[in-house]
Structures
1.
Amino acid sequence: MHDTEQTHPLRVPKRMQQQVQLGAAQAEQFAAAFERLAAAVDTVVLGKQEVVRLALTAMFAEGHILLEDVPGTGKTTMARAIAAAVSGQWRRIQFTPDLLPSDVSGVTIFNQASGAFEFHPGPVFANIVIADEINRASPKTQSALLEVMEEGRVTVDGRPHQVPQPFLVVATQNPVEMDGTYRLPEAQLDRFLVKLSVGYPVEAAEIEVLRGTHQRSPEHLAAVVDTDTVAQMAEMAKHVYIAEPLYAYLVQLANATRNHPQVAVGVSPRGLIALTRAASVFALSQGRSYIIPEDVKALAGPVFAHRIQLAPDAAMRGATGAQVVADAFHQVSVPLPASAA
Amino acid sequence: MTAIQRDRPKRSGRRVRYRLRVAAVAASLTLMCALAGAVAARVYHGQLLYLLVAGAAFGAFAIGFALRNRPAFLAPSASLVGLAAYLLAAIAITDDGADPLPATIVDALVNAVPRTLTALIPVEPAPDTVVVPVFLTWLAATLACEFAIRYGRTLLGCLPPALLYGAGLYLVGPNAEVGTVSAVAFCVLAAAALAVTAAPPERRPDTDAVVDGPAPSRAPALMGMVATAAVLLAVMALLVPVAARLVTASPGDPREYVEPPQLTDIDLNPLVRIAEWSKYPDQDLFKADTSADAWMRLAVLTEYDGTTWQAAGDFRTAGTVIPGSGDASYSADVEIIGLGGKLVPAAADPATVTGLPIAVNLTTRCLLTPDGLATGTAYHVDSALVAADPAAAENARANLADAATVAVPPGTPEIMATIADYIRTTYDTPYARAQGLADFLGQHYAYNPEAPSGHDLPSLGFFLGSPVDAGGQRGTSEHFAAAYAVIARLIGLPSRVVVGFEVPGGSSTVTAGQGSAWPEVDFDGVGWVRFDPMPPPDAVPVPPEDTLEQMEEETPSPEEDSGGGGEAEDFNDESLEQDGDFDDALTEDAGGLPVWVWYAIGVLLLACVPLVLKARRALRRRRRLTRGTPAERVAGAWAEVLASAARAGVKVPGHANAEEAAARLATLEADIGPLPRLVNAAAFAPHAVSESDADAAAAVASDYSGRIGHQVKRWKRFLT
């Protein structure tokens, strides 16, 4: 009997049942809170519900967001709106070529009055950090964000300083004006859980934007959730149930990107973990306490595409990471019952 | 981590069992392909083709098996290369080296099919006759491996070897014994392959197994298998003997539909050669080194249309072994000097011929070489000498089984009928009449090598009836043999004319003077007996009219002529042939049941197939929707919906998730409601599925298949 439970894909093993801690009610509560937050951001960023929800998904998955689009599409506005909707600290850093790492992380100064060195935290010490036009800073300054994005702390003069939790970096970059910019290295791109493109709003939304330009500023947005709630919701996402066949499905997807003929470097295990975390949050945001393949498919593009390094000839031909991800989904069978092999 | 470690031995054991099953299927199908290929090898000479087809089956399957996990295009490509290499090897092995290998390869590939079909049994394993069976065996093994091993469709994998088996039977036709052992072995192997893969759902590696519900418990399953086997055995025990009695006809022989080798004029009417040979008796025709004295036959002529004597039947390409011959007791090495044409001299009955491509006339058992004889052509022939026993022939009746051997064309000269009457009234038994006719011709007619050629009825009438002064009553063996054969038929004796040579034992050169024609008469149970109607050397012929006029004076009235007394047996009484023990009674009683009943049973069984399929589908649906946990039932409902959509022509690709599948299914304009959500829950959170969910899913599945029923093609609705 025990064997049957272990081998049959539609019977939940006892060890797996013990891991399932979230009930439908909790998932509904999460979805409601998530929707309140998204709706608040939607009042400022019009017509971008999907991007807003993906960004919030990344936030609750304790990941960081890279917003890439042409100037004026609302990248910074959305970042500021998310920050304003969460009643925590938020800071904005305008990255420029002469920005120094200490301008980001903070500096230790000798206090003549006290006769001791004192640490003055940089703007990175906030719950939400908006790194505007991050690709304009030098690689040295960009790399100042590496440690804090991955570990949530800053080390200055050999002393670690913890940043407040939750901690979210929302970076923006402009893909068209490349003069005087420094392309983010792959290692740093991998630190961002999702890379999103805001895009132009649809016509109706754009008209609505014009009608209420002054009223829709992030400054007027009241906080909807506090940082504690965000931390609790992020913790809930770690207990979303993932069925055994989905693990294999996820790994097969990653392998498909790695073995793709147009790809030089496929998705890393870190990317796979990121997708799992993001899918967990996405499932909860839909009021579900378990992941389904639709969650994976919804997030694979934003999570995987920027982590895929295309082969030079494929890049020359105009191939994109999103196309590779789409190909991967066509190669891997969904672990549904009775699906064709 | 502990759980993973616990799973390893279990997964490993399952993998081993799976590999064992695959290996068993591969072995079974390989043997099936080899057996199927060997069906045709039964009509080949020697064991070589058995080895070649077995190698082809093994080679093709080995390539397919080795590449089973590689991309699908790779195995056929590699198999194609392997086939080419194997065919070249087979051609090289069977090549006799007479021609350059490239020419042999091209010739074999171009002419493989017609030569395989025209080759006479037993077929000689030559490059052009092994290509077809080797190619078909390789093809069948490749397809079987692809179907059964790569795609896991064992039943479909059995189809290519089964078709190959059928093709082999067709090629063999009626020329081999019934291969019961190989047929049983073939069926056993197929059953083994199917049984090995007939795993219960939870052990099947495919995804369908999940939704087919739990397997029935062991006892009912075992009882079901035993009951099914018992029913099958009972049906076979009842039907097979009856069906076997119904089969009275032999299978058709494809060789009957093949164009035979073409003959030249002198081969079509070889009797005209006698005049030339008689006129120039010293010309050398061929050298012969024989083991004994014998008559070597060039042609046997059984059909006479009033103008020419011709051979019956067609020539068929044969190998070195001539089919249907006995043990060779006579051998001859022949080297052609001046003999032309395509007909090959050989003593009756030829058993083996080497050194020459040969076709044989199965009716007369004479030989022909398609390329024709030329000076220097040499060959060796072994024959089983046929020596009819004259003592046995004396009391035998004429063999009237073949109407062609007693057929007489209209317009026979009166002299022939007169001689026939004379012989019939003078002699009682068929043998006495045959010998009497030979004696009559030998005593009353003269040999003249200068006599003009011709054996049409007017010429024979001139030979028999014209006065000596006018050039009649003298002729060559052409006239004697032809006249004898026609008169014999008028008497009621089955006759034929043979053209050949009298060849002494040892080494000698056969000249045209040794060539002659002679008549033969067929006696029941004895065979064809040669008669010599030629006059003895230096004999003075008696005018035939003297003997015939005397006969007319002595002829008794019909009432007095009782054929040698009332107790004498009438050897020409056809009613005696009706012994009542022939085939009619057998054919009337065969089977016990009229044939239409069996056709009706066959139609009924065919009509049952759709019903069985429908019942199977209904049972599967019931099992899917009602058995198992709620999650299993939801999955079963999903499978039912996909199956219904597939029947209606909409197939969902494997990479589609539930939402995408639902979008695809929506093209059938039938809503599946909450089923995608439920199946996602069933597959990825089985604990979240309740009984009500399962019931709802079952309702959706039933409703969906009902609503799209009209979109299923009519024939599919009817048959499945």
Note: The two ends of chain A are 28 Å apart (CA to CA).
2.
Amino acid sequence: MFKKTYDWIDERLGITPIWRDIADHDVPAHVNPANKMSAFVYCFGGLTFLIIVTQILSGMFLAMYYVPDIVNAYRSVQYITDEVLLGQIVRGMHFWGASLVIIMMFLHMLRVFFTGSYKAPREMNWVVGVLIFFVVMGFGFTGYLLPWDQKAYWATAVGAQIAESVPWIGKYIKTVLIGGDVLGALTLTRFFAIHVFFLPAGLLGLLGLHFIMIRKQGIAGPL
Amino acid sequence: MAHDHFRERIPGTPRFKEKDKNKPIGTEPFFPNFLLKEWIVGALFLVAFMLWIVFNPVELTDVANPSDSSYTPMPDWYFLFLYQLLKYFPGSVIWLGSVILPGIAATLLILAPWLDNSKVRHPFKRPVATSAMVLSLLLMIWMTYEAHVQHEEHLASQPKKVDQSAMPADTTLVDANDPGAKIFATSCAGCHGADLKGQIGPFLIGVGNKYDEAKLVDTITKGFPPNMPPKGGLASDDQVKQVAAWLAKQKQK
């Protein structure tokens, strides 16, 4: 039954080569904790991806209830937290997941750095990885404002102030960042759009590149 | 034997008999063997994560209030090292901390593969790269810690929010156009609040229930040095009397 379904699709779309590219390869011994426990450091990248997936999922569910305007944003977060079934849990996943992504990604970066895995021919993948890091920091910065509570508002106010301190072009950066002269309604919609449309697009593109390059170049050999 | 029968099915035993003797020892097919193990690790990781979430519910502070600039801002913890860096470049050189240094650090990080371009990979065999990263790491941890400590110190130095738990439920002011009320609004409201709900000083809603006018005159005249000056900073005894007379009327329940 499964075999027949698979063959039917394969005849029409030729998915076997794609499937082979993704799944049919051997995992070398030195990255497999089943061989040597210390190889667990090679898990950090995969765990980062796992948490990014849970961030995307919990974010999608939060977006069902969240309202990005200054009158309702706070109330909708309150509603998610207090009224929605499992809302407290989903919000908790998204909140704590944000920190966990940073932690796991940082550990992954340290592993790559200290094992010298970024050396030729994998330089480009390192650059993509650093860009992913910056994008994730962008997620953190924009997402922090969305609950529209005091903590969120004043942290972003400081961020805007810092942007303004850039010589010559500071005030233009600030205007682009907060969408006007004051931190308010336009800032919230802008940060929401960046958080749920612009940055995810960028992140998924970069992650795609990251994984394609790993498959193309293979994982770096043992030290 | 039944035992052997099972062994062929648990993840970790090879999915197929290796025919290729040239493969290095210890390699394992990604699918399904290695992926199943990864899933186990991932599942355990998620369970720990979910437990953490259940026991650490996320708080929501008060709704954003753009006119309340007394709120002490604090970025999320992973931005703290950058936030702390700014404090070392105050005033007109802040751009050194906000643009130049982070810019240099980010550029060095991106260019790492070209700066550290020897063939060797072991961290002990490339001391410059390794020590540079260890040092930056220690610096980041220290600055994050320092930002946290300074934030806590700042919070501790802030005047404490007055305890309003014993305040009467009815907070409507009695006789808000009284001359005493006008004196209060200019001289006393800064600490006790224009609505009498208290700021740095205690709330005065319902103060008339506890004290009569004479007692209030006495209390204001003495003050509470050093927090409240004698006469509460009022110019004359007459003003004290007018304020006390108005406060004595505040008998909210």
Note: Chain A has a mean pLDDT of 95.
